[in-house]
């Protein structure tokens, strides 16, 4: 059995991870870290876990959370990870960080976009960007995983086949993304209150959302050249789900069949990527509670433009499901263990 602790277990991604780990046949949860619920049973914080996970929570700096575990998941706000990751790897353990601190390769770019000092260049060099569809081989042996952001996951998976083949104009990529409110986390936040979001819809994060450098860094790596994108996130009045609409210009006239073939070939061995048939575009509900990323393709032969619709559950493939997928890969397990559920419907 793999012994696992979650630091930040009482947040939205932490509890989603706990839910999936409880159903994983090779995992034992040995520690749950929190800020506000120290010594309280996890099932007291989340009564849907009653009879399932009653472990008492500990403060996030309780040493037992590290000493008892083989792998530690960090589901904390950004800014906490660097010292914790140091302590974890010193003790020969592995760590999967759901936050943003280890995603960017440059400390200067991190400081510019997050307005705080993050890990050093040496610390960052130890981390692997944990997007399995792109980095599986490196993830297998990694000690530190930087789990991708939710928006970047939809966008990188949506664009990778086109950029790898260099069939779109790298200077014209426009991304319009929408997120459910759980994307903002569980802490008290005026902009997430029911009366603020219900019956409303808005763009936010302009002019510079902090996921932009992560998107550009990883797309640039796939493309082998520098990429800049225009990225606008929006807030949807629903709990979970994320949909990105991505617009690009084809360098030469290609039809749907050729593009579909390209995506099917690129993702042919991927258990969690589902390319939709011609004329079908995924809904957020199709992936609710699952680790799938569903991708729809529209080739507009009239304008020579292509539109990609990429959909995930922000708390699953956008965070905790992807983190578990990474753990499965790191431990040589079947990558889908604990992740095989079908979406809830309706
Ligand atoms: N929500 C999403 O869709 C996604 C989130 N992420 C990233 O994952 C991480 C966790 O996000 P999410 O679960 O949404 O966040 P939440 O705000 O829901 O949870 C944060 C967790 O961290 C704990 N925490 C907060 N502040 C402190 C502190 N000062 N000291 C100790 N513990 C603290 C909280 O404890 P307590 O409950 O006691 O307050 C809680 O367990 C973030 O870095 C986020 O950016 C990544 C992808 C998607
Ligand atoms: C709706 C909403 O507020 N979403 C969050 C998503 C960010 C997130 O969770 O990503 P990190 O892991 O990079 O922090 C936001 O836009 O800031």
Explained architecture:
The chain has 346 residues and is α/β, with parallel strands linked by helices. The chain folds into two domains: 2-148 and 317-330, NAD(P)-binding Rossmann-like Domain (Rossmann fold); 151-314, Dihydrodipicolinate Reductase, domain 2, CATH 3.30.360. Helices cover 31% and strands 23% of the residues. It contains twelve helices and 14 strands. A seven-stranded parallel beta sheet has the order 3-2-1-4-5-7-6, sandwiched between helices. It has a seven-stranded mixed beta sheet with strand order 9-10-8-11-14-13-12. α7 (132-140) links the parallel β6 (127-129) and β7 (144-146). α1 packs across α12 and α7 runs parallel beside α12. It is globular and about 60 Å long. N-acetyl-L-glutamyl 5-phosphate binds at residues 78, 99-100, 149-150, 179, 183-184, 205, 211, 233, 235.
Question: Which SSEs are present, and which pair or pack?
Answer:
Blueprint: E1 2-7, H1 12-22, E2 27-34, H2 42-45, E3 58-59, H3 64-67, E4 71-74, H4 81-90, E5 94-97, H5 107-114, H6 121-125, E6 127-129, H7 132-140, E7 144-146, H8 150-164, E8 168-179, H9 194-197, E9 202-203, H10 212-223, E10 230-235, E11 242-250, H11 256-266, E12 273-275, E13 293-300, E14 305-312, H12 316-330
Parallel strand pairs: 1-2, 1-4, 2-3, 4-5, 5-7, 6-7, 8-10, 12-13
Antiparallel strand pairs: 8-11, 9-10, 11-14, 13-14
NADPH dihydro-nicotinamide-adenine-dinucleotide phosphate binds next to helix 1 and helix 12.
Pfam family, one: Semialdhyde_dhC_1
Catalytic activity: N-acetyl-L-glutamate 5-semialdehyde + phosphate + NADP(+) = N-acetyl-L-glutamyl 5-phosphate + NADPH + H(+)
Protein name: N-acetyl-gamma-glutamyl-phosphate reductase
